[in-house]
Amino acid sequence: MLARFCALVGSSRGYVLILDNAARQLVPTVPIGYENFDPPTARTMDDANDPFVVALLGMQVVTCAHGLPRSGISRRTRLIAVPFPQPRVMDAPRFIDRPDADRRLTGPCSIASIDSARAWLERPDGVALSPYGVFVLETESLPVALDRIACAARLAGPMLSRLAASDAHRDRAEELADQRAVLTSIVNSLPDPIVIIDGAHQIVVQNQRAEHLLSMSERDSEGRRRAVEINNLLLTSHLSKETASSAVNGAAEARELNMVDPDDGTDLLFEVLTQPLDENENAIVSVLRDVTDLRRAANELELQVQRVRLAEYEAKRESDRLNLILTNVADPILVTDDRANIILMNRQAELLFGSATPNIGYATGDRSTAVRANDTKFTTFISDFSLSPESARREDMELQKPGDHPATIPMEVVAGKIVDRRGEPLAIVSVLHDLTEQAENERLYEELKNFSNELEARVRAATADLGEQNVRLQWQSRELEKANRLKSEFLASMSHELRTPINALIGYTALMLDRIYGDLNDRQEEGLVRIRAAAQHLLALINDILDLAKIEAGRMPLHLEDTVLQELIREASVQIDPLIKKKGLTYRWIAPDEPLHMMTDRTKVKQIMLNLLSNAVKFTHSGTITLSAQQEGDLVRLDVTDSGIGIRKEDLSAIWDDFRQVDQSRTREFGGTGLGLSITRKLSGALGGRVTLSSEYGRGSTFTIFLPIRTEPHRERDG
Ligand code: ADP
């Protein structure tokens, strides 16, 4: 357009001044024909008399007789300034009216008088306008077409302004696109995922790293797609929580978020920094800082710290324990360095080696001497030991006991070296042990041992003696047994010899009492009765003794036969009946109705019954005597019960002995030999049975015999 105008005015040079509102300047653009000339410079709007400013604000074509300074137009030619408007702009300068414009112009410049002047200010199209620019043209003479040029400029102004605006927009857009490209490459090069999310939590923008975590395509593997889905869910829920909490707290703060690496499925940990992009927080930008390695390292560090703390704690405990041991151990303990200097000792050691001890005070006099002597001995020992290659040493040492009553203490020193990693000795720990008690114990032990040896010798001698006595006793016992057997054999074999004379005595006495040898006077008769009674007693005694002897000598064979128990009881009862009657007692026997068959020696069973029944009668003054019999399994049980004098507890076992009668006076009263029960027991034993007794003194007794229903035949042989 400028070129057209130049052609119309026959000019070779011209340019356009455009209003820069912000800078309050008129800025030259698109100069034509300035290749060999100084280009025009900008003009300030603050110069109210500048012809270009006046032309613009007054919207009047201004012509100047020659060029102006800094206008680029030479002073030899004429200058024409043709203004043009733009659609109204808010802060644009205001127009001035014609008189004002006239007033401002001086010198070579004046308003050109043309037909269309200011016609456009009447707003023919109703569009509000603002000043915009000025065409500056160089011309030799005032052109004829000036009116047309002014009109064209006026009409073209708004279009030009729009074109310029669109150019500016395009430039801006290109610039923005460049900036965007730069920013995108910067953002993409960041190792941290960055996402911009709109109010609906949809991702609007994300960098490559975020895309890797949060976007997927059809070609991706199933695993990767699932991981991406999970990541999206995690992020969305994190962000919605975040928005809620930041609505409360107001400030954006870093929170942790777990995600999954879509490539290998490993866990990732991010620190999410969220920042709203605008006031309304519709869009937020989130920077996810990958702290997986950091956290791993932090955890590892934490673990290390904990381990160190634990080790410290253990070490402290160990040292506390050592201190406790040191202070509480009853033995003196010393720690010395490799030059035999004491660096640590417990209280017990201080008593022996300390020159100044807390509760004792400074060592003086005898005490000091004792301490020095101890120190010398100990230092010698330690020096010697530290030079030797051995790692531990034990030695007995006599130390002085410092104090009011000096004494020598036998001590045992056990020392061990503490070495560093290279085996160099660092310190020596010595434990001293008082051997006084041990020495005393050893002495006592020695004494005890001697005493024990002596005792042992005595016991050995006594045992030897006993052995001898035992041999003698065994011999005596055998002799006794032999004698007893001989006695029994003698008695058994003498049975006939003993009984025959007594039977003769009884028989002849009976004949005499029956007056076979003539009459007797009373005294003779009384004598004979006594003789007969004595003889009968003697016979009974001899019978008993002989029976016993026979049993003991094994000369009383069993004659086993089928026997009905009831018959035996009946016979014994008939035999005992006279004695019962004589003492006015009651007697009854009880037995099963069915005959009870036994395979036994009937004579011996009957003798057992008679022995027990006669004793019962003998020791009963009044009342009842009962014999009851019953079967118990394969045994027969016989009970002989009386209501007699009974037997004292202490005599219960003695009555079974041979010739034993519990009360001499009573025996005299009751008579007897003291053999009955002994024989009874031996007989029942021979039959394979046994006897028991229960008795209450003063009330009566029960003797019970258990006999086998069938006595084994071998007993017959034995018997
Ligand atoms: P003995 O009857 O000939 O004296 P025993 O051997 O038969 O000799 O009895 C020993 C002692 O047992 C008797 O002296 C008597 O003291 C006591 N004794 C035996 N049976 C009875 C009984 N039924 N009641 C009280 N005492 C008895």
How would you characterize this protein structure?
The chain is α+β, with helices and mostly antiparallel strands and 719 residues long. It is 47% helix and 23% strand. It contains 17 helices and 26 strands. The strands form six sheets. The chain has a seven-stranded antiparallel beta sheet, with helices on both faces. A five-stranded antiparallel beta sheet has the order 9-8-12-11-10, with helices on both faces. It is elongated, with a radius of gyration of 76 Å. The model is unreliable at 357-361 (pLDDT under 50). Bound molecules: adenosine-5'-diphosphate.
Q: What ligand species are in this complex?
A: adenosine-5'-diphosphate
Unreliable sequence segments: 357-361
Distance between the termini: 172 Å
Radius of gyration: 76 Å
Number of helices: 17
List the strand order in the largest sheet: 3-2-1-7-5-4-6
Quick take:
With 719 residues, this protein is of the alpha+beta class.
Would you spell out the secondary-structure blueprint of this structure?
Blueprint: H1 2-9, E1 14-20, E2 25-32, E3 43-44, H2 51-58, E4 62-64, E5 78-87, H3 98-104, E6 109-111, E7 129-139, H4 146-189, E8 194-197, E9 203-206, H5 208-214, H6 222-249, E10 255-260, E11 267-276, E12 284-290, H7 292-328, E13 333-337, E14 342-345, H8 347-353, E15 356-357, E16 361-362, H9 365-387, E17 392-401, E18 407-419, E19 425-434, H10 436-493, H11 495-513, H12 522-553, E20 561-564, H13 565-583, E21 586-590, E22 597-600, H14 602-618, E23 624-632, E24 635-642, H15 664-670, H16 676-686, E25 690-696, E26 700-708, H17 713-718
Parallel strand pairs: 21-23
Antiparallel strand pairs: 1-2, 1-7, 2-3, 4-5, 4-6, 5-7, 8-9, 8-12, 10-11, 11-12, 13-14, 13-19, 15-16, 17-18, 18-19, 20-22, 23-24, 24-26, 25-26
Bound molecules: adenosine-5'-diphosphate (ADP).
The site of adenosine-5'-diphosphate has 19 residues, from α14 and α16.
